[in-house]
Target: DUF4010 domain-containing protein
Amino acid sequence: MDEVTTQFLTGNEAALRLTVALLLGALIGIERGWVAREKKAGERIAGIRTHALVGLLGGLAALLSEAVSEWAFPLLLLAVAGISLVAQRARMPHSRDYSITSLIGLLLTFCFGAVAVAVDLALAAACAVVTALILDNKREIHGLLNKLQAHEMDAGLKLLLITVVMLPLLPDRGLGPGDALNPHEIWWMVVLIASISFIGYFAMRLGGAEKGILFTSLFAGLSSSTALTLHFARLSRQNRELSPLLASGILIACGTMFPRILLYCLVIQPALLPRLVLPIGVMGVLLYVPALVIWRGHRRDTKVDRPERHQNPLELRMALLFGVLLAVIMVLGQWLKEWLGDAGIYLLAASSGVADVDAITLSLTRMSQGTIDLSTAVLGIIIAASVNNAIKAAMAAGLGGAGLGRRVALPMALSLLAGLGLAWGLSG
Model:
């Protein structure tokens, strides 16, 4: 390819990137212009034309920095900032608007133009679209902020702490007996369970109690079906008429545990899914179907409060306890595997399922990558889930009375037997 053709293609590429810079500026300008559409001409600091030109100017600044002087971009950026500040200062006595959002948007538009020309078109386009969405949803964002409570803000910050700060600091290598402990992977699993609990909490928070038992139970299964079982059992003791609906809610929450298990396996060890989908799916269906039958047969207009959440699922102390439990299970799993073989894994799964399914599920999923075979991991997960649901059925009967216990126990027993039978058959 000769030099003239190369220069022609380079010029075409530069023209294309400058066009994209212009269009990205126009995108943000459309949003800003729509917000200020009722103002008279000249009252707006920057509309669609100004933003489009600023995006183009950012692209030209990137070209000039490469072809003429490296000072071109910073000097032009300062010029745009200075002109914007002067315009804002002149407008303030008339509008008494002290917000600098529009000024930041204008500076971002300049930068997006430069990124489109000098860095990456897709990155510039993605940033521009996200910026336009943020600018366009001012009322919704402020509304969510007004509804946010202090402990919820604290939970979000703690989630960032354990994810962004702590996770990268942990060594990513095997430690301890048989190299069974990988601090980075253990903490990554802590982050995974904490994130799912966080999502489940806000799904319940935003859904509202008026959606009733059905909606609340479905999302409670993402975070704590045990907490919901305890709350609904106490509620059933206080109001016997609600026992059928509460039993339906408990079954739905316990059934939602099974999609959660599949999610863990999909993220950590996808090879488990073909063996796990059938028994887990059957166990979930055998809880969901009776729950919906009970719900349709006993539906009332009575509204029930969402389950009480006495503990924040993202308390750092709880996350650390979960990590310790996970590490202990992995060490015990390695020891029992060497001592008793697969029988030791099943014993560990049964004892762990009494208190928690997530820790043993994550441990067995991790161990299936090399320490144990896939069939053993599948059967261990089913055993843990079955024991956990059996414990919740006993809690419902003991705390909620015979009516609640009977409606919960029969589907739980069918689900348990079907899951164990299928898992045993598939492992053989």
User: Anything to note?
Assistant: Residues 148-427 form one domain. Residues 3-35 form the longest helix (33 residues). Confidence is low (pLDDT under 50) at residues 1-9, 301-311.
